[in-house]
Amino acid sequence: MRLEDVEFSADPWIFWFAYRDAVRRQPAGSESIAVLIEATDKWPSEVDFQPIYGSSYPDRRVRTGRVRPDLVTLEAVRRQVRRLKIARPVLPQLRDARVALGGDRAIGPRPAGWDGSGVVIGFVDNGCAFAHRNFAASDPDGAVQRSRVTRLWDQSRRDPLWAPPVGFDYGCELPLHQYDMLSGQRLDALRPDRIELPMEDRHTRFGYVIRENVGGELIKSNFAHGTHVMDIAAGSGETPGMAPAAELMFVQMPPYAIRESTELASANHLLDGIAYIFDRAGDRPAVVNISYNSYIGPHDGTGLMEVGLDEFLRHPNRAIVISAGNGGDQGCHAVRTVARGGSETLLWEIKPGDATANFVEIWYSGASALSVDLVHEDRQEADEAVPPGKKRLVLASGLPAGAIIHRAKDPGNGDNQVLIGVDPRFASPTKPADVSGTWRIVLNNSGDSDVVCHAWIERDNRGAAPASEQSRFVGEPKDGAFTLGGFSTGRRTIVVGAINTALHTIERYSGRGPTVDGRMKPDFYAAGASDAAGHGVLAASARGFYPLRSNGTSMAAPFVSGLIALLMQKAMSATPPLRLDSEALRMLIASAVRPVENAPTDAGAGQIDVAAALAALDEVLASR
User: How far apart are CA 315 and CA 562, in angstroms?
Assistant: First the structure.
């Protein structure tokens, strides 16, 4: 049976990979793939779920697991659950990084006495310089230096010396709390003649090598995204971060989770990382910073990833802070109203030299039924348009180069979802086809009512030539509306956009709402750059003691994560302690923001004010 004839109502991404493997005439991979599953009381035996969800989170409806990638198994799983999704790739939300030339950290005043003590700040990221002096806690005599990063789960490797953390079946957990960071020796076996190791050797002592994605390759670099973000939130160097006494936990994502666009490049590592941090935090207040995102998704809070994030926040003393994404000026969103009996066209440009797969997702009401076609500029004739519930291959120069997959009534929100993919290596990984040029996405409406549809291009600037890899819509207004990252539209997560604190303006790249269901996002803004040139925010480098600048909403989010740690510390220090939930934290910070000049009305509440937010908490505590 042809794949085109297989009836389905599953995640379109499942069929994308099935199509590709069929065209290449290769069997489905023997390795299991990462999936997100939403269920109620029955968890399919075909899926290997991470054990922690049964032990520490038995009430969760969204869990991560692995399953064989063949269609028969996936269909058997789908019939037993509410939703099945392949976990998708995520990318850091930074713009650039460069050696610092001066300037301050733009963190604003932090009232004395509040430093994040007793609060856990967690990071699911890449590159943790846990032996850096900005994350050190020395004994009174200075002879021993412990890392404030008390737990580090490296999801990227197995190691005979370090076992996976309890509750998970992959990666390894580094017992940093058992070691002196200066010498790399165990605390219970310190030698009197120990010598201080260079900083990089302190990391490699644990087999941990810090690499950053530069030009599509993971190489050793002075800049590390995770180190930079962690220093802004909680560094304790000469210019301290927001919460310099907080306990730190770090989850190192595998390289493929942040670099590749494959069925292995999975956002499930984010959910697993958050589950790990909150579980290890125990009864202590904890906030997790996520400075990764993607562009696609329904953008109404119903996506499986967003629901999974919200589920962690059903209890107080827990918060998740997410960067708003850097899609504000990328030309990766379009909206159309397709009149009844009419059609609309989107122009999608793929640049010459782009060797990566390119994707568009389109979402519209499940009460309507559009048919969708994709035609290259070199061809005038239309192909067969694809209605809901159907799919077909896309050709380039007569060869299969992608697919249109049209799903009817996604179970999350009831909307119809169209996945369009064009990949030069779709038919052959070694003989890429030329898919460059402008493609016309034609939306036909044969119904009796107008249809509003939103389209997002997935972020794709992760390789050797990021400027040419990111495809874009042509001729669309770049007003920034509806450009939030796909994960940034949940109802309980706190979303942060980027502002230039030197110019008092919102950074043009900062993604913003509204969400498709009409909510204002991001919730507020923090520094994505603190210099007039927009080069970024100063924070720690990974291999030296001089700081670097980096900009993006990645850098704005940890300011708010650190502020939340201060609010949690102060609230729990009151008599009796006050356990703040995520909505209370959002309202406290929003009540004390500074207005942003010339900001759109749907662009978030304003710029955070640390002292004012803590003063607002004082009023709440006094009113009890």
Answer: 20
